[in-house]
Amino acid sequence: MQIIPIRPCALSLGRPSDFTVRRAILSFIFVSVTAISQAAETPSFAALLQQSQERAPQLLEQAANVRAANADVRQASAWINPTLNATAENLGAPQSGGVSQRQDTYTVTQVFEIGGKRSARIEAAQLKSVASGARERQTRLAFASELAVVYATAEAMQQRKEVSEAELTRATADLRAAQALVKVGREAELRLAQARASMAAAQAAVQSVTADATEALERLSALVGSVEPYGRISHPFMNLIAVPRFQEGRSLTEAPAVKSAVAEQEAIAAQIKVEEKRWVPDLGVSIGMREFGWTNEKAATVGLTLTIPLFDRNKAGIDAAKERAISAAMRLEAVRLETMAVRRSAMVQVQASERRLEAAEQGEAAASEAYRLGRIGYDSGKTALLELLAIRRALSEAQASTIDAHLSRVRALATLSLAEGRNVFGEAP
User: Fold this and answer.
1) Distance CA 349, CA 355 (A)
2) Paired strand residues for 88
3) Are 419 and 349 in contact (CB under 8 A)?
4) Which of 104, 134, 395, 402 could bond to 260 as cystine, CB 3.0-4.6 Å?
5) DSSP letter string over 310-362?
6) pLDDT at 251 over 90
7) Secondary structure of the chain: what % helix, strand, coil (to 5)?
8) What CATH number does the domain located at 18-420 have?
9) What is the pLDDT of residues 358-410, one digit of tens each?
10) Are the CB atoms for 367 and 394 separated by under 8 Å?
11) What DSSP letter does each residue of 253-271 carry, written as one string?
């Protein structure tokens, strides 16, 4: 094999030299390192999941809703406040025998809810609290699944960036080899132009995927409520996820969406009883004292008040509550059907993603070996430049395919774990 010395040389016609190529590469590296140094270190997925429980906006929102629902239960249990009434009568009336006819009456009235109104209201509030807790659980599971996908996406974009940078390195090496071969007359000038175009495309790819990686990290930071943007992911995640054993006959009642819909239906159904008892009269009991102005003597007063449900028996309110209950029942049925379909589809997607990942890894290994042999052949003059460029491009595509397969696997697992009601990525508090 003929050994061709490679020396830095400036090319004619304004073509970039080796120094220009090296400077371009160094500028890419400098920009990447600078961006990483300005960003906070990205914790592991488990650490982020733990930290997000106390600072992720959507989780804090649901926690506040649960506390509000619990407060509503306490409020529903409160008794109606008594009322104090003071009445002065016969003010300015003619005196009788020089004595004032004024009478002052002071009464305290307590209204009592009868017919089970208070107990129905308390039960409805308690079931609303249960529904709020179910929604919070659903939100936490959905958040864990979303975090897994976003974290995996950021990791995938980082790996894609590394693949692009490796492609740029290979393109640069191929360009240098082409320059040397053109100089000794073993390659035409056209081949050199093709090598330059390939390197330019690799540079553009690095720029594009770097922007994608930055965007993915920014989204991750926003999701977990971090003010500071995250930098490089140093904790592998996608490659460490094991596929759990899922049961095909698992009950749908464990699915968080179904649990939430069931709790909502029960809360709305309880509201029917509240509306049915709303027309029941409230009993007011009054006790007081009356003072007679002409004798300054006092007497006790007792009174009862009772509303008469003559015109309003809350029929429309009852009808509205019943229709909402029907709507909730239909929504529950729709959620059950959707959850069943999502589960079946997700199981298929998980299985397909496993097979896809296996095939992608095999393809990447084959492409890597093909490029190694192709580069040896090109250096020895047995492989054409166009063929080498095609082999190199195939390697990059195979590496990207493996990364995409890992990401698709995470997405499928996230969908299935949410449908199952189990967090396969790490148990959230």
Assistant:
1) 10
2) 104
3) no
4) 134
5) SS---HHHHHHHHHHHHHHHHHHHHHHHHHHHHHHHHHHHHHHHHHHHHHHHH
6) no
7) 65, 10, 25
8) 1.20.1600.10
9) 999 999 999 999 989 998 888 787 888 788 888 988 998 999 999 999 999 99
10) yes
11) GGSHHHHHHHHHHHHHHHH
